[in-house]
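dude i think i finally got it to work??
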Amino acid sequence: MRKHMQPHIMCGIGDVAKYILIPGDPRRVEIIASFLDESRKVADYRGFITYTGTKDGVGISVSSSGIGCPSAAIAIEELARIGAETFIRVGTTGALQKDVHTGDLVIASAAVRGDGTSKNYVPLEFPAVADLTVVASLLQAARGSNLKTHFGFVLSSDAFYENYEKLSRWSKFGILSVEMETSAIYTIASLKKLKAGSILAVDGNPLLGIGKGEFEPGEKTGELDESVKEAIREEAKIAINAIIIMEKDPKSVERTEDREKQKMF
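look at this
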């Protein structure tokens, strides 16, 4: 049978594992893949870079999604067509709460659908929620980290240069942070009976004017901040460990799920 390639990610059946790590930045793919036991570059086309390898015998792929929900939706759609089943976004986010600091981690239980892409799939009343098994595995894996980890809702927005008043309103509602991809990933995964979670490194706080923005040459800000670089490396390790937990220790995931359910009810 002839192999059919996907038009944007340039991958076909057999090129990716069922577990996929999804960073936005193409340059981050190789960094994340370096934490696998072995990996190879599968494709590099239009900003969609894909590596496939293994960790402790478990197949894992890393594929960039680019910036924003439209690009992320293309990646999820095409990866799902060639066998991907579980997606973990490994990205960055801007804090919207004073107790969420640069270099912290955020695990998103759900996302406010402030994007336009997911509206093309379902009405706004449809929630963008994570798969409980995936977030339970991320929470369990994060227990071994020295970084502070927050768990809760994030805002996904199409506008990087969001106005202060809008972000301030979501902050008052208790939203932990703002980013640009999770809502589409969660929505599409739910509709297609896939699993998805999101772990994010905090790279600043737009409400406080801290983090990603204009900077002088040589200035260490946003993703250039050493604490953010470390958080990106740490979240990659946590995401990989979460996959190993899901694959090899499902009973421990069930116990974590039970604890989270008890907190909810």
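The longest strand covers residues 86-95.
im so relieved honestly
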